[in-house]
Automatic annotation (TrEMBL), chains A, B:
Keywords: Oxidoreductase. Pfam families: ADH_Fe_C (PF25137), Fe-ADH (PF00465). InterPro entries: ADH_Fe/GldA, ADH_Fe_C, ADH_Fe_CS, BDH-like. It comes from the Bacteria. Belongs to the iron-containing alcohol dehydrogenase family. GO terms for cellular component: cytosol. Residues 9-175 form the Alcohol dehydrogenase iron-type/glycerol dehydrogenase GldA domain. The keyword Metal-binding does not apply. GO terms for molecular function: alcohol dehydrogenase (NADP+) activity; butanol dehydrogenase (NAD+) activity; metal ion binding; methylglyoxal reductase (NADPH) (acetol producing) activity. This is NADH-dependent alcohol dehydrogenase. Residues 188-385 form the Fe-containing alcohol dehydrogenase-like C-terminal domain.
Length: 386, 386
């Protein structure tokens, strides 16, 4: 097991009708900016619950944060924060709204001239404007971590940021929100969370027995609840387990003391930037090819995953490992998630070269847990995913 | 799954040579009280590492905190804290030293006349004197939670306290400390951590799939590493997994959203108070009888535990459940932990009646996850454990 440090101070309120807890978590005298996305919260009752809880408080709203939170839109919100002297942010939405809010939390206190530098120059945020979240779409885990991914359309960039100052002060997780989420987005959420676990698990054995088992626990739970959640989003028990699994998949715990990969995300982000493919689906496109291409590096963990998560007990280590990749692809298919780039765009020729070129230009010498995945290898993986 | 809230702000530094991290975690100008137990830390090099890390700082020492931290001793330390205007506590030890330090953290800022009231009147501590810990004995999980248990010899009481103000600001977990721990204490640590998981798991099914799997993960890991740790305490991988399992067993995570029991601890504490039996061993004495006595209430979870943790796949639900209790007892025996009260004292007659009487006098109407375990039932369980 590797040396690590771990601290996660986010206060989670989990369960039915927990939205009312926000009243006690935001200082009475705060000037609050309520941030949300496309306005679904006004249809599904969540907006009503939030505004009821904040009745009598000083609240300004900013809606319209798009999926893959867009820098240009966030700059408008940043202007509002400064003009109105906002001192507390409340994100009501999924990963995009929460990630956008994290950028704003950092940018509001950033002293440089160009907020994009926070992403471009990878500046860690030690102190941000305080914020809380009301999660409306389980998927990214952003509600209990300190990272964010921001997109800039004009340059086709999608970059990550973070720092210990960017943990939400509190996050509200009410599994009842799942009832109003379209099936497509539920499938994305399951795929996203499952992929997060894979990125932190599918590397090589390092003797971190408990972290491995926790990761396997999350994957087993997601596999178990996925059909129930998709069939009946009002199934509160399934919704609860889905929601908590998504949070635990990326709150830092299972990555501590182990090597992590994240190449699938790095490559997947390019597909979203180029074709607008849903984030989760890009992961399902890249992961199987990535594991097949890097089979020798990953076969021990693939075989462990085969046995413990998919109950594959027959065959050699290599056979189990191969079957585990097939099972993973089957799982994505069972969620109606296509795993080939050509199923999303007919315009895929040249994608592999373009992504390799992007990585080279950005100076990303090598990805993966061994830092051996050079742009030429990335090109091959993407081509295997066509 | 039940509604819950969860927050754990303790900063963990885990791994080889992590003791040096304390220098960066305690404010430069703090007046520090270094607290420890019987002085083993002066023999195993830990005291040396701590004082080297704190070189040049304003540090006073208080040693001699006994196992089952004794109120009278802690009052001496409290006097020192007040006389010397101490503003930071550093616990270097196992659960007893850390629990004692939590009491001091609370008592230092307590405004009532009688510090024992914090325990007697169950006063929750919202703000305590800040403190950190260097863990020298994995077992209790006290290094990453906000609870403590304090003993008062003169009244034969052993009571719990806690509150959100009592999380350590940081805890240092260096698995190398295990090398110098006597086998008896290692066995106690494994038993203690395993029992903590059982208290939060062995109740009834409530559809908390992820919490169940996390609990099972910790038990599987403890079972796997126990023989390795006992055979060779210098096995760093085994030591790491043992240490992290103990912390995760009682840092709040696996108890969220599920019913918990804690009757085994409540009864066990009485045995320690009456006979001075090691805390962990009292749990091993009581748990099997407790599960046999409350078999109908617990058989579903016992059977799930049988299958997932002990790989018992044959037989009816009841048969699996029974075998799981036997397996648990066998596990304690494999650690050289006796599971009968009569193996610890020949003076056991009347123990059951005395404990039932204590509970009645304290107004403890009923224990357990269903709050149905009245003193007369407790009496039967204790008698079954003779």
């Amino acid at each position: 097991m590797n040396t690590f440090d771990f601290k996660n101070p986010t206060h989670i309120f989990f369960g039915k009708d927990s939205i009312q807890e926000i009243a006690g978590q935001i200082p009475e005298d705060a000037k609050i900016l309520l941030l949300y996305g496309g306005g679904n919260i006004k249809k599904n009752g969540i907006y009503q619950q939030v505004t009821t809880a904040l009745k009598g408080r000083d609240v300004i709203e900013f809606g319209g944060i798009p999926a893959n939170p867009e820098y240009a839109v966030l700059l408008q919100a940043l202007g509002l924060i400064k003009a109105q002297k906002i001192d507390y942010l409340l994100a009501v939405g999924g990963g995009s709204v929460i990630d956008g809010t994290k950028f704003l939390s950092a940018a509001a206190l950033y002293e440089g001239a160009e907020p994009w530098d926070i992403l471009k120059k990878n500046i860690r945020t030690l102190k941000g404007l305080p914020f809380g979240t009301v999660l409306t779409l389980p998927a990214t885990g952003s509600e209990m971590n300190s990272g964010a991914v921001i997109t800039r359309k004009e340059t086709q960039e999608k970059l990550a940021m973070g720092g210990p100052g960017l943990f939400p002060q509190f996050s509200i997780l009410d599994p009842q929100v799942i009832q109003s989420i379209p099936e497509r987005q539920l499938a994305n959420g399951i795929t996203d969370a499952f992929s997060h676990v894979l990125e932190q698990y599918m590397t090589y054995p390092i003797g971190a027995a408990l972290q491995d088992r926790f990761a396997e626990s999350i994957m087993q739970t997601l596999i178990e609840v996925a059909p129930k959640v998709l069939k009946d989003p009002t199934d509160y028990v399934a919704a609860s387990n889905f929601m908590w699994s998504c949070t635990m998949a990326l709150n830092g715990l299972i990555q501590k003391g182990v090597p992590t990969d994240w190449a699938v995300h790095a490559i997947g982000h390019e597909l979203t930037a180029m074709y607008g493919i849903d984030h989760a689906r890009t992961l399902a496109i890249i992961a199987p090819s990535h594991y097949r291409f890097n089979f020798d590096d990953k076969k021990e963990k693939l075989a462990q995953y085969a046995t413990r998560v998919w109950n594959i007990t027959e065959g050699s280590l290599e056979e189990k490992a191969q079957k585990a990749i097939d099972k993973t692809e089957d799982f994505f298919h069972s969620l109606n998630i296509a795993t080939r780039l050509s199923e999303y765009t007919s315009n895929y020729e040249g994608t592999a070269e373009k992504i390799a070129q992007n990585f080279t230009e950005r100076g990303w010498v090598a990805l993966g847990e061994h830092k051996t995945l050079t742009p030429d290898k990335v090109e091959k993986i993407v081509r295997m995913s066509y």
